[in-house]
Design goal:
The protein is mainly alpha-helical and 125 residues long. Helix content is 74%, strand content 0%.
Length: 125
């Protein structure tokens, strides 16, 4: 999986995929996640085309990240990212963004929220 991300990484932001890959399943219970995703989708729709490319610091991603945030969840994502470090060694397009996420737990959490929202958009599409 990391090899595939490395190949895509030159053209794509792989941080959301890394955060999602690092997080245990399920990190957020469905009864909490589903309504939060619905509200984030409404924010996307209110801002224009809900199927446009997501931004890590975008309004919908930030709102979702804030709503689902907890120190325990951030720690789970960080532990998962740390576990990927060995496998990512030598994969330039993966190791650089992975290190960036490891240095900034807030950014890692935003990336995770972005991945959740991207998955929701994919399911709706």
């Amino acid at each position: 999986m990391l090899q595939m991300l490395d190949e895509a990484g030159a053209e794509a932001d792989v941080r959301p995929a890394l955060a999602l890959l690092a997080a245990p399943e399920p990190l957020v219970p469905a009864d909490e996640l589903t309504p939060a995703l619905r509200r984030a989708m409404l924010l996307l729709a209110a801002g224009g085309d809900p199927h446009r490319e997501l931004e890590l610091d975008g309004r919908a991603v930030s709102a979702l990240a804030t709503e689902l945030d907890s120190p325990e969840r951030r720690a789970e994502v960080s532990r998962g990212l740390e576990a990927l470090r060995g496998e990512a060694a030598g994969l330039v397009n993966v190791s650089r963004p992975l290190n960036e996420l490891l240095l900034d737990a807030r950014l890692a959490w935003q990336a995770y929220a972005c991945a959740l929202l991207a998955d929701e958009l994919e399911d709706d599409g």
